[in-house]
Write a structure and sequence with these properties.
With 321 residues, the protein is mostly helical. It has 13 helices and 2 strands; from the N terminus they run βαααααααβαααααα.
Length: 321
């Protein structure tokens, strides 16, 4: 079972960098965050439903082992040998909408590209992802509002699912919000670049953020983590950050107090340029990736080394288990 989102703890801690490189947003509108807490609650509810449907005591395990935490009765977990993350069986996840390439392409179940974002492989998977969501998402929603952060979250999750489906074919399913969370992380990086001139401690901020991103992507090369979803979500969020998270230059908020002849432009020329390029890359990327996916193309046929972006085999583990 390939699950998107193991090893997200570093990302959660990473948002502490963001007094945003010395930028004082005190005069900007501060939004009351409600979307991120709603997503948080929704993911927990979905996981409870997963365990209710799974019903380990009734359906048992193909390994014949006893359910974990049997005192939970219908909500007991599958045996650790089957699911070490304390969660349901692969069959339950597949039934509830896990990302499955064959079903997306051959059975026209494209809805799985979205539904898998709301599922989690186990309690550990859920806790790590939800902590990351709270640390990253609430601060972003306070600064940019629920519409922009909601768009980044959903489209990044979708982008992660598309790339995952292109490279993880038969015998794998994928679940988790990590693609969406990596999208938020990517948008933080592009927001920093997009609004470069308004920050004071920009070098320290970008080095810290790049270090956090590198650590999280490196963890993704371990077995059972879907790093393609991480990468797809990150790239989507990175491009969306240029499109949605530009800040007006200094003086724009006070333009009504200035003479008509000295009116500043809302954004600088380089911000418009970055926005345009990012939007074009985003549109072209989605069109090409979706066309390849629904034609049944395997991304590994065009990129033989890309498999190592998802898992690097060592003497301690194999990548095909």
């Amino acid at each position: 079972m390939a699950s998107t989102g193991e090893g997200k703890g570093a990302a959660a801690a990473g948002y502490q960098y963001a007094s945003y490189g010395g930028y004082d947003a005190g005069e900007e509108r501060r939004w009351w965050p409600w979307l991120v807490p709603t997503v948080f609650v929704a993911c927990i509810v979905v996981f409870i439903v997963e365990m209710f449907v799974n019903n380990c005591p009734r359906h048992g395990s193909p390994l014949g082992d006893a359910c974990v935490a049997g005192f939970l009765r219908q909500f007991a977990f599958q045996p650790l040998r089957e699911n070490p993350l304390l969660g349901p069986s692969s069959a339950t996840l597949e039934k509830m909408g896990a990302l499955d390439w064959a079903k997306v392409v051959h059975q026209h179940q494209a809805w799985r590209l979205i539904s898998c974002i709301w599922l989690h492989a186990g309690l550990i998977h859920l806790i790590v992802n939800m902590l990351s969501l709270l640390f990253i998402g609430i601060r972003l929603e306070q600064q940019f509002g629920f519409v922009r952060i909601g768009v980044i979250y959903l489209l990044s999750g979708f982008g992660g699912s598309v790339l995952s489906a292109l490279f993880l074919h038969n015998n794998y399913i994928s679940v988790g919000a990590s693609g969406a969370l990596f999208g938020l992380l990517g948008s933080m990086l592009s927001e920093l670049i997009m609004n470069w001139t308004i920050y004071s401690n920009k070098v320290a901020a970008i080095i810290t953020l790049l270090f956090i991103i590198a650590i999280n992507l490196a963890i993704g090369i371990l077995p059972h983590a879907d790093n393609f979803a991480h990468i797809g979500g990150f790239v989507t969020g990175f491009l969306l950050g240029f499109v949605l998270l530009a800040r007006p230059q200094f003086g724009w908020m006070e333009r009504h107090e200035l003479p008509q002849t000295n009116q500043p432009r809302k954004y600088k020329a380089y911000q418009y340029a970055l926005l345009t390029v990012a939007l074009l890359l985003l549109l072209v990327g989605f069109v090409v990736a979706l066309a390849m996916l629904f034609k049944g193309k395997n991304g590994n046929d065009s990129c033989h080394w890309c498999q190592y972006l998802n898992c690097v085999p060592t003497s301690r583990w194999k990548c095909n288990t």
